[in-house]
Amino acid sequence: MTKPALTPLAESLPASVPFVGPEAQERQMGRTFTARLGANESAFGPSPKAIAAMQKAAGEAWMYGDPESNDLRHALAAHHGVQPENIMVGEGIDALLGLLVRLYVGAGDAVVTSAGAYPTFNYHVAGFGGRLHTVPYNGDHEDPDALIAKATEVSAKLIYIANPDNPMGSWHRAEVIQHMIDRLPSGCLLVLDEAYIDLAPDGTAPAIDPDAANVIRMRTFSKAHGMAGARVGYAIGSAEVINGFNKVRNHFGMCRISQEGALAALQDTGWLSHVRQEVAQARDRIGAIAQAHGLHPLPSATNFVTIDCGHDGDFARAVLAALVAEGIFVRMPFVPPQDRCIRVSCGTEAQLDAFAQALPKALAQAHEKLR
Amino acid sequence: MTKPALTPLAESLPASVPFVGPEAQERQMGRTFTARLGANESAFGPSPKAIAAMQKAAGEAWMYGDPESNDLRHALAAHHGVQPENIMVGEGIDALLGLLVRLYVGAGDAVVTSAGAYPTFNYHVAGFGGRLHTVPYNGDHEDPDALIAKATEVSAKLIYIANPDNPMGSWHRAEVIQHMIDRLPSGCLLVLDEAYIDLAPDGTAPAIDPDAANVIRMRTFSKAHGMAGARVGYAIGSAEVINGFNKVRNHFGMCRISQEGALAALQDTGWLSHVRQEVAQARDRIGAIAQAHGLHPLPSATNFVTIDCGHDGDFARAVLAALVAEGIFVRMPFVPPQDRCIRVSCGTEAQLDAFAQALPKALAQAHEKLR
C-alpha cells in the first residue's frame, strides 16, 4: 500500500513556524512570562466596548458569522471613505497575505521584499512556490528605491513593504510611499502592510486611492485596537483586486464574535486615542530604560521600540536569551545588521518595571558570556 | 501600465460562494428570518460553560491565541485516545479541507466525491486545479462501493465522504466505512468528514486508528457543540499526515476566544447529552410536521431532517422559495434526484412552530405555481 503523496511543492516545504509562540516557550521553561513584550500585542487591551460586544456575541456563537462581514465592511468603507467593494475582511493580515500570494504568485514567480522583513509573508511566498528576492535595509529603514529597482530587474509580481516597519519601528513619510507607488513597474502589485499605521504620526499613510489597481493595503485590529487574539484584518484595494479574494477565500472563516468586536472597536475612537497616548508614554519609557543602560533606542512609529544593543547579533541574541530566562518575552530582528537589536513591545507600567529590572542583569550576563 | 495579473489558475476561477449566508438573504429581503433552520447550526446554543469561557477570554483578546492550540489539542487527544501529534486544530473544517486539498492535490490531480455532497470541498478542489470526479448517491446514501471503484479508476489522490451525510442526513454503520478504508486504492487518502458524528447512533464511527496513513477524519465544534460562529474544527490522522498542515497553515489563525470556548465545550459532556436529546426531539417533531402535510421525512443521524417533498426539484425549489418568503431560512440539496427534498435544521420549539405554520402555505404556493 503506497502512502498518499503530497504534491511536489508541498513535499518540498519544511514543516515550520514563522514565530514560536510565547505559550510554547512557557511550556518549555515550565513557567509563565512575567512580561509579555515580544509580539507587539497591545497590553492596553481591546476597547471595553469591544469586549462587551464580544461577550454578547459569545452567546450567539451558535450562528455562523456573516460570510460577507457586511456590517464591518460597510463601517470600514465609511471610515476610509471608500466603497464596501474596496474592502476585504479576513482572519488577520496573515490570512489575507496568504490568499493574496495564492492569487498572484505561481511557481517561480518573482516577489520582492526586504531582507529581515515579515517572515510570514516569506512563508506564504515559499508555500506557493514563488521566488523571493530581497534587498537590504538602508539605515534601519526599508529601502523603497532598492525595492523598486529589484522588482523592475526581476519582473516581480509583488513587492512587500511595511510602513511603519516591523521589526525596526522605522517609517517613511506618505510622499515617499506615494512616490514608490508612482514608480511601480508594470504588472507589479505593491503590498503595503500598514498594521501599525494607527500608531504612526500623521502624514505616514498616503491617501487611499480606491482606483489604484497596483496597490493593496493591509490593516488590522491586532495592534492599536488590541484584538490580536480575535483575528480580524482587512485589505483595502481596487474593487477588482479585492474581488479576487472571493475566488479562493474561506467564506465562512470569520469568527462571529470577532466581527462584532471589531465593529465596536472601530466605533470607539476614544479608546484608540487613549491607546495612542499609552503607547507614546510606553515608547518613551522603553527608550529611557534602554538609555539608562547605555543602549540606543531607535525612533518608532509603532507599539514597540527596537533597541540597538551596540554590538553584534551574537550579543543581542545573548541579551534576548537572558531576558527570556528572566521571564521577559521579547523578540529581535533575524538578519544582520538589524540583529544587533532587540525589540520590546509597549507594555503596562508593571510589565516595563519588570523589563527595567531584568535588562541590567541580562546585559551583564551577555557581556559575561561573550567576554 | 499593465495591471497585476492573477496566476492562470486564479484567473480561471469564478468569484463564487458555496453558500449564500442567511444575513445576505435578509438584507436582500429587507427583513430578518423568523426561524434560522438552513445552516444546521445548533439553535440550542453553546454550553453555558463555553459561553462563560469565551466571555472571560474576550478580555484577553489582546493576546494572540496559542499557535499550537496546545491545551485544546491535548484535551482532544485524551478525549479520542490518541496523541496530540494526531490532532490538528483549524478555523473550522472548511479551512482544514482547504489546506488538505492544497497539500495533496496539484493541477489535474483526480479527486472523488459524491454528486451533491459538500460544495465547499469541491470549491477547494477547483481552487487548487484538481479534477473532480463524482459518483451518484445510492438510495439517498453516499455509495462507498462506487466511490472506491471510481477512485481506483481515476487514481484519485483523495476521496471525500461525510458520515453521517450532509445534505441527506443518512449514514453508514462503522463496519461499512471501515470496509471502505480497508479497500482504499494505493496512494489514496480518505477524507472522512464526521462533522455530525456527535449526533449519530453508536456504531456509526469506526474506531480511530492513529497509525492509518490513508484516512483523515474531520470533526467540528460547529454542530453538536453549537459553536459554528467561533470557527473551531479539527483533523485526526496519522502523525505524518497531521504534520503536513504545519507546512502550509496560518499558524496564528486560531481565535483565542474560540480556543477557550472549545476547550470548555469539550469538557461539558452534560451539555452535549442535553443537545443530543433536544436534537432527537426536534428531529421527531420535524418529521411529524412533514408527515402531517403528506411529506416524507428521511431518517437522520444529524441535527437536520431532509424532507422528501414527493415531486421533482422544481417543486422542492418552489417550496423552499415560499418558505424563505415566509421568513423560514432553509436550504436543500443541489443535485437530482436528491433535490426533490428540502433540508430543515433542528430548531427550538418556537422556530419549529414557525416552520409548522409556514409549511402548508409554502406547499400550497408551490402547487399553485407548478400547476
TrEMBL record, chains A, B:
SUPFAM superfamilies xrefs:
PLP-dependent transferases
* Substrates-to-products reaction catalysed: L-histidinol phosphate + 2-oxoglutarate = 3-(imidazol-4-yl)-2-oxopropyl phosphate + L-glutamate
Leader sequence range is none
Cited InterPro entries: Aminotransferase_I/II_large (IPR004839), HistidinolP_aminotransfase (IPR050106), PyrdxlP-dep_Trfase (IPR015424), PyrdxlP-dep_Trfase_major (IPR015421), PyrdxlP-dep_Trfase_small (IPR015422)
List the EC numbers from the record: 2.6.1.9
Instruction: Alphabetically list the UniProt keywords.
Output: Amino-acid biosynthesis, Aminotransferase, Histidine biosynthesis, Pyridoxal phosphate, Transferase
Q: Where is the Aminotransferase class I/classII large domain?
A: 36-359
Q: Which CDD domains match?
A: AAT_like
Gene Ontology biological process terms, A to Z: L-histidine biosynthetic process
Its pathway is: Amino-acid biosynthesis; L-histidine biosynthesis; L-histidine from 5-phospho-alpha-D-ribose 1-diphosphate: step 7/9
Name the Gene Ontology molecular function terms of this record. Answer: histidinol-phosphate transaminase activity; pyridoxal phosphate binding
Enzyme class, first EC level, given as a word? transferase
Under Pfam families, the record lists: Aminotran_1_2
Which family does the record claim for this protein? Belongs to the class-II pyridoxal-phosphate-dependent aminotransferase family. Histidinol-phosphate aminotransferase subfamily.
* Name of the featured protein: histidinol-phosphate transaminase
Q: Which organism encodes this protein?
A: Yoonia rosea
